[in-house]
């Protein structure tokens, strides 16, 4: 197989994208189904109204419900939006069947970006990449991506096909990809997409709100909310609140604007379950942070890189 090299224009301004994980997924302890479905639909339309054109979902989100809701709301304007979906590691000979199922849910005949969602250590993932290349040739997908892969895990895949996108968690509280994935992807012409840009909502709220989270809230398991490090994070959050207030921004807007300022970033994903959250966050696309503010935020959060030198994701998840 002849492998093509990607050409990436890093002068292209990063765009906001709506992460659709929360639509129907029990991780977020959603309430009565009719209400969260209505909220999801309103969130999608608020995103469209704000000019957002990239939507990120997955086969596993809500057992397919997220794909279904997203596709139903976007199919009338399909040509003007970009849709990404994902699959967990699966036998290569089942890839086409899985993508065809996603296409039916998404009410479309192609997916703009299709990711392998999490690596499988110890397993050769190249046959899966080759299968995705075949679906690309058939026009079922337009770009191949990997999600939550380290540079060391991506490198052997480059002999099996073209990796167009790499998606990873990245925020003011979690800048670990700067050490690994970002330099690698820039060398190999792989576009980058960041998720958990608000650290699952932690960057959108005050420390008081965070400390009031119920004990069973899944955010309690995030690495930066562990008791032994939270006090360091708390001081950073308080200073970010101060910076946001000085600029007349909300903490969420400040955090997303900083993420969008990364010159290597293609899409900055944020999750939202309500129209109000989308309306607040989408304003970040209009914000140009002063250079001295960006430098201040960089210096403030850089020490956090030393807190988890061996960790690969904010969940402490080992695939």
Compressed to H and E, one letter per element, the order equals EHEHEHEHEHEHEHHHEHH
* Amount of beta strand: 5-15%
What's the total number of strands? 8
Largest sheet: 8 strands, parallel, barrel
- At the fourth level of CATH, the homologous superfamily is NADP-dependent oxidoreductase domain
Query: Taking Cα atoms only, what radius of gyration do you get, to the nearest Å?
Result: 19 Å
Here the CATH topology equals: TIM Barrel
**CATH architecture annotation name:** Alpha-Beta Barrel
Helix content: 25-40%
Which runs of at least 5 residues are low in confidence (pLDDT < 50)? 1-9
Mean pLDDT: 92
Distance between the termini: 29 Å
Helix and strand composition category: alpha/beta
Quick summary:
The protein is α/β, with parallel strands linked by helices. It has helices spanning 33-49, 65-74, 95-106, 126-137, 151-154, 181-187, 207-211, 227-246, 251-260, 275-282, 291-301, and strands spanning 15-19, 54-56, 82-87, 113-117, 144-147, 165-169, 191-195, 265-271.
What would you say this structure looks like, in words?
- This protein is α/β, with parallel strands linked by helices.
- It has a single domain (15-306), classed as TIM Barrel (Alpha-Beta Barrel).
- Helix content is 36%, strand content 13%.
- It has eleven helices and eight strands.
- It has an eight-stranded parallel β-barrel, surrounded by four helices.
- Helix 3 links the parallel strand 3 (82-87) and strand 4 (113-117).
- Helix 1 packs across helix 2, helix 2 packs across helix 3 (95-106) and helix 8 packs across helix 9.
- The longest helix has 20 residues, at 227-246.
